[in-house]
Amino acid sequence: MTSIADEAVSTIVVSCKQTRFHIESPNYRELDIEGLDITVTSAPQDKAKGKGKAKAANGTEILSGAKLRLKAGNRYALVGRNGSGKSTLLRAIAEKLIPGIPEQTRISILQQTNADHASSDHPPASTPGAAEGPTVLEDVIDRATAKSDLEREISALSAGVNGTDPLAALRALRALRHERMLKRLFVLDKDARLRSGARGLQARKALVEYEKAVAKSAELKDQPAEEISPETLQAETQEAADMLADLQLQVEPSRMADIESRAKQILAGLGFTDAYAAKPASSLSGGWRMRSALATALLQESDILILDEPTNFLDLLGILWLQRFLERLGDQPTPPTLILVSHDRDFASAVCTDLLILKDKALTYFTGDLATYEKAQADKKLHLTRMKEAQEKQKAHMQESIRQNLAAGRRNDDQNKIRQAKSRQKRLDDRTGLNVNERGGRFKLNRDLVGYHLTARDEINVPQDERPVILSLPDPPDLRFPGSLISLDKVTFRYPPPRGSRQLLAPTLQDVTLTVGEGDRIGILGLNGAGKSTLIRLLVGEAGRTSYAGTVAAHPRLRLGYYSQHAVEELQRLGRAEPALTALALLMREAAADGGGETPDEGAVRGLLSSFGLAGRVASDVPIRKLSGGQVVRCELARLMRRRPGLLVLDEVTTHLDYETVAALREALRTWRGAVVLVSHDRWFMRGVVEGVADEDEGGESDAEEEEEEEEEDASARRRVVYKLAAGKLTALDGGVQQFEESMEKRVRKLLVD
């Protein structure tokens, strides 16, 4: 069976194997799809001829012969590198492009948001002319329940039933019935296109019959009054009254009050105060629109819930609330099946019961979290390696014995020894090896032997490691004289009052003192709106001097690299302005500008881009506008590191990265010689970079001597401090990330009161 879906610039081609037993599964929370193929191709649908696989020949293959198996109520973390096709798979599921997903399945999805100026540090603000339209609360309820559609149908039927025209109820009923039939026609048309073979023929026949029914409905909708019999009028008038009563039950005040209560609780957990929830939905900025969309997905009654990076733009309070909310879904009588994509390891590990791994165009499954999976894979590889080494050693020993016997037999013309040596050689070729198979079970000839006859036994296949993500950060140059890199002394910052107002606003920062020395690791935690971005702008010199009081000083030889939370959007905007601009061309242009117009070393620039995973033609041929979000982040980091900064100020750098790149960046920053000021809501990332915690998720332990050397270095020079920014005050946390997390947990428990 094949499905084709058009996008603006690409087409998703889906095909799979399916038996009749899976077509109308009564459990809509489960999926069991065999032989799933998904390809993204730029070929227009109307030009593609033949079967789906033929159409997909020139596209990018995402899955090939995969098995998609989702068990009801399980919570899956979808794992895969940037560009592996996670979002494409989620879209194919959400839009039911995969044959075998019943149309009755209720699927809610939160997709990644690429809104410009999506700020996570400032609440939504009113904009001129945005006072029209529904409030945030009304908009969330309407999108989750289709309340406006129900009210529109109720209004139309009510006008007909209560009207003075005796035909009004019949006309309203027929118009509503025809509208619903058109929606059903769309579903049947899609079903006919998805199915092939005998079932496809049957679906197309059903579509033709339904098209006739729709045409007849259109005629009845406009039927002249004189052709309507009294019996038909009475029956359909009663039917209209019954339908009106059913619809009114769906918007019953008690039911809607319960939905509104749940919506308020969800919005509060995601950071909306009552005042912000009452603002017009059209006034929200990008980050708050994403939270509104997340609230809609959580409020909807669904069989399958899909969340693609839901923690983007959430602070730690919102992340912990969402974590607890999703965990509590399992307490429901029929919890939805969850598919989650998240670069936040702590969040994904706490929420999900299983891993769904997209790798090498296949889907594999693992019960447990990512750390357990990585350790299990490492243990399996070690076990198979030892088995293979033992097998090779045994084969070598037997081969040497055979060689000696054969030589001795030929030297002494001993035909018995020659026959014996040949017999042992045959046994070695056909059967000899270990006593167990790859899975650890006892070897059985009729089960584990390759082929139909006594041919060679299958070799033990030791899985090859996927090329790891390694980020190389060049060390900064030495400063000629010592001193703090940046220091803030009793700094107070306040934004200017709105135009026309003389009342001063409360200070965003108050008496902040902060010093960053060479090699220091400084972490800044705080809720959205606490002033973290304002503090960062002060550190990097982007705040106006008249906006603050106090002292801000920087080392005269400081080279600073600043990664803004809007860096991806800004670089993508540059790519759209210059459609042919590549990462290599951009860095070469900037290097030439820094060098006074001299031609930079292209090899060095290519090497730098390669060290950040943008190698070869990706760097030189692929325009920036076509790079994925993760690749754009790598390009921006390469731009920063080209200048060899001594201080990196990173504001939410992990947002668009896959989990493997986050782990690589964490390890690179953990041991880098320069200083780092990090703002992040990713607890695992913050613990590694700032607190220096080893990569426990890899299941490995640092060498004792290496730990001692690092401890000596930290004690003598490197400071590791985690600060909390709240109410304009900057406070050092003795308990680090754990202390801040525990304080947020207390607030989450209050928000989740039943």
UniProtKB/TrEMBL annotation:
PROSITE patterns given in the database record: ABC_TRANSPORTER_2
Domain ABC transporter residue range list: 33-385, 486-723
Region (Disordered): 113-134, 408-435, 695-717
Segment forming the signal sequence: none
CDD domains on file: ABCF_EF-3
Sorted UniProt keywords: ATP-binding, Nucleotide-binding, Repeat
Family annotation (InterPro entries): AAA+_ATPase, ABC_tran_Xtn, ABC_transporter-like_ATP-bd, ABCF, P-loop_NTPase
Annotated Gene3D superfamilies: P-loop containing nucleotide triphosphate hydrolases
Composition-biased stretches (Acidic residues): 695-714
Keyword Repeat: yes
PANTHER family: ATP-BINDING TRANSPORT PROTEIN-RELATED, ATPASE, PUTATIVE (AFU_ORTHOLOGUE AFUA_1G16440)-RELATED
Protein name stated in the entry: ABC transporter domain-containing protein
Source organism phylogeny: Eukaryota, Fungi, Dikarya, Ascomycota, Pezizomycotina
